[in-house]
Amino acid sequence: MRGKRLALAMMMACAGSAAIPLPLQAQAAAPERLRIDTKRIDAALAAMVADGRAAGTSALIWQNGREVYFGTAGMADRAAKRPMRRDTIAQIYSMTKPVTGVALMQLWEAGRFRLDDPLSKYLPEYADMRVYEGTDRAGRPFYKPAERPITVRDILRHTAGFAYGAGPTEAHRAYVAADPLALTNTLGEASKRLASVPLLYHPGTQWEYSIAVDVQAALVEKLSGQRFADYVRAHIFEPLKMTETAWRQPDTRLPRFAAMNVKAGSKLVQQDAVEAQKLNFRDNALTPGGFGLASTLDDYQRFARMLLDGGELDGARILKPSTVELMATDQLDPAITERAWLPGKGAVGFGFDFAVRKSPPQTPQENRGATGEFFWDGMASTLFWVDPANKLTAVFFVQTIPYDGTLHRDFRAAVYGPAYKGPAGD
């Protein structure tokens, strides 16, 4: 009995010692906890309208599994005196790209391709690509065969060598002449037109934002046997209950569209609402992978929350957690030093259709955010990001063209605080 009492006393002594606080120097630094200041965000949105950078703004933020902020400022349509609302539909342009990437990576999970397969294995038109190498003394362009094939990984991380519009070289002029993104083209026709255009550089050697995500969409069609829009609707939008996100919107929704506003000097000029809504491809052959979706804050937030939750939302499994992690991991080799304007987005690399923050903000001017965040934006200055460190997602809507990065800088500063550098240890 005495032995049992002694053993019990020793156990209690051990338990008690475990509860004694460690010396301060032995304790891990507590992470910086992000608290959302709703008044600060309200003020930032209002300021964007007041100083003429936006006609209307709206934002929706989730953190720790619940909504922590929703707010609007200004007008969705100034001519109609219609304010920005929660159900306003916005054109999100390149925020379409992450949706396309998720669709393609679903097919990767299904074993339909390998990341380092040659693209020509599935789209034969890319079998013999040429690379623009400059001009000779007579001013004639010359080309060389690509040093290696374009891979699927290249089209996911913008290292294929494709152009994306007009530019200074003969390759850019060939792109314009081919007009792969003409709205009368199907995705298959767009891909074949693009394959006739010389590459700007050898695959895998540079990062250059490009038409590659539209090639991803063509690949989704080829591998799935479905039209791209049908595949995305069945495998992403319907499972996530994204009921108002589409390339082709019904007429009944058009009164909820935000008008587009284009900068003319120091003023924003509202575009004709009917003409702007034609951009939703309701009567065109092309369903692009790189742009074209229109969505609401709540719909796109469901997409962002799915990514934050490791590929699942409300019981709907879209991707495996490991696949989301792969997409949100920097895929650029250190040897890829030519990165166009990507460094202007901060201390970032690039994953699969997302920019990926690699370290805390390096300067006071850099956008606020936490290491490990992944994000993308759109030509009309829309933005979303996923911040795993703070268990946060944010969606920001505005319809300002050209793209205005100051809106993102100010919105992020309002969310995080102007001096935020991320959790301790970043």
Descriptive report:
The protein is of the alpha+beta class and 426 residues long. The chain has a domain at 106-224: Beta-lactamase, CATH 3.40.710. 31% of the residues lie in helices and 17% in strands. The protein has 12 helices and 17 strands. The chain is globular, with a radius of gyration of 24 Å. The termini are far apart. Residues 1-30 have low confidence and may be disordered.
Summarize the structure.
The protein has 426 residues and is α+β, with helices and mostly antiparallel strands. 31% of the residues lie in helices and 17% in strands. The chain has 12 helices and 17 strands.
Q: How is the CATH topology of one domain named?
A: Beta-lactamase
Which spans have pLDDT < 50 for at least 5 consecutive residues? 1-30
Q: What is the typical, i.e. mean, pLDDT?
A: 91
Oligomer: single chain
| Beta-strand content bin | 15-25%
Q: Roughly how much helix do the residues carry, as a percent range?
A: 25-40%
* CATH superfamily heading of one domain: DD-peptidase/beta-lactamase superfamily
CATH class (first level) name of one domain: Alpha Beta
Give the topology.
Layout (H helix, E strand, L loop, with lengths): L1 H18 L18 H13 L5 E8 L2 E12 L4 E2 L6 E2 L5 H13 L20 E6 L5 E5 L6 H6 L12 H9 L8 H9 L16 H13 L3 H13 L20 E4 L2 E4 L2 H5 L16 E2 L1 H12 L3 E2 L2 E2 L3 H7 L20 E3 L4 E3 L16 E4 L5 E5 L4 E7 L1 E2 L3 H12 L10
Characteristics of this structure?
disordered N terminus, 8-stranded antiparallel β-sheet, globular, alpha+beta, 426 residues, 3-stranded mixed β-sheet, 31% helix, Beta-lactamase
